[in-house]
Write a structure and sequence with these properties.
The protein has about 375 residues and is mainly beta. Helix content is about 15%, strand content about 30%. A hairpin with a 3-residue loop joins strand 8 and strand 9. Helix 4 packs across helix 5. The N terminus is likely disordered.
């Protein structure tokens, strides 16, 4: 399995999979999460980006509405929110203050396990809303989180908005309907959404568009690759190229034991260990022009040193990483390229000299 976390791209493959809606759509832009900005007079609701690690959108729950921030995650399907104050958290969904809540049944709930975090929740029912040119909302069952491990580690978000298919939602025997599924079933919103995810230091805004893709946010024509199954957003990866040259692995190596997934819940490329090592080898050879010693290159990949190069000069040293995917048009191949300022993580703000860290990691197949 290869996980492609392409949040730094100008438009994700989720956006490429949605044609511009001919009817109405609701654009929900993303704002810098550290600012904790609230919805302005504009007819958009921003998603928030903190250090290019995740993106959040403001939503309201209950009556009167409680405004909370949710991580936008195409790698899961449940809507869930903290129902008590965890460490570092300023606000949470207070179930005692909502007049429209259907109280949970004690001891009846579910849990969700991620790679290195988890949470437990009771099932509640209440009003859930987003706001844009028109107010959109549904009465929905979702998780009220009462316990967690390493999930809430800051005050930048209070919940998670899962946008994947209901087939992977929890609990397994009676999966809850995802928010977007419920919205398209009850409101005049086409069953399409798109994401534009840009780093914190970028001058370009990030947004989630419900109902299609905003043509004003697209710089090129839409391209399409088939989804392999309706669970995660799974695609087939044919090859990875660095500077136009393939890494030398078979298609099966990239997609074993299943397929590649597109996950907005993180911003790293996650690769099988052998493929990750091959990518580090070719990138490391290019970095010798900057670091001059192999030890410094190793320290860069280990996160011990940063690359100090301004964005406009990165291409003097590093080349794009390109992902090859099948097209829905027979005989055609799609090429999606990440440039150095997209596959590296900037760790300094725009008003300081640029410093970059390696933002690709690996996992082991057991």
């Amino acid at each position: 399995l290869l996980l492609l976390l392409l949040s730094a791209m100008a438009a994700t493959a989720a956006a490429a999979a949605a044609a511009a809606a001919e009817g109405s759509f609701v654009r929900l832009p993303l704002r810098p999460v550290a600012a904790r900005q609230r919805r302005s007079a504009e007819d958009v609701v921003p998603l928030l980006n903190y250090n290019s690690e995740f993106f959040t959108v403001d939503m309201t729950i209950g009556s009167p509405p409680q405004q909370l921030a949710f991580v936008v995650d195409t790698g899961s399907s449940n809507l869930a929110v903290a129902s008590q104050k965890f460490d570092g958290m300023y606000i949470f969904y207070d179930t005692t203050k909502s007049k429209t809540i259907k109280k949970p049944v004690p001891d009846v709930g579910f849990s969700v396990q991620y790679v290195d975090s988890s949470w437990q929740a009771l099932v509640v029912t209440d009003m859930v809303n987003v706001s844009g040119p028109v107010k959109l909302g549904v009465r929905l069952q979702f998780g009220a989180i009462y316990a967690q491990k390493n999930f809430f580690h800051s005050s930048f978000y209070e919940g998670i908005l899962g946008l994947a298919y209901q087939s992977i939602a929890m609990p397994p025997k009676a999966p809850l309907k995802p928010f977007f599924d419920a919205l398209t079933a009850s409101a005049d919103v086409p069953n399409k959404f798109s994401l534009v995810l840009c780093p914190l230091w970028s001058s370009q805004p990030s947004d989630l568009t419900l109902g299609g893709a905003d043509p004003q946010r697209n710089r090129s024509a839409m391209v399409f690759t088939p989804l392999q199954k309706e669970s995660f957003y799974t695609v087939q990866l044919l090859d990875i190229e660095y500077n136009g040259k393939g890494l030398g692995f078979s298609c099966g190596a990239y997609n074993s034991p299943t397929y590649t997934i597109l996950d907005s819940g993180g911003t790293e490329l996650v690769l099988p260990a052998d493929i990750h090592n091959a990518l580090k080898k070719v990138v490391g050879a290019a970095l010798m022009a900057v670091f001059s010693t192999s030890q410094m290159v190793d320290d860069f990949f280990a996160g011990k040193v940063a690359l100090e190069v301004e964005p406009e000069n990165l291409m003097d040293y590093l080349a794009p990483i390109t992902f090859l995917l099948p097209s829905v048009t027979p005989g055609e191949t799609l090429k999606l390229s990440l440039y150095p300022w997209q596959y590296l993580r900037r760790v300094t703000p725009p008003d300081m000299d640029a410093r970059w860290e390696w933002s690709t990691t690996s996992y082991c197949i057991s």
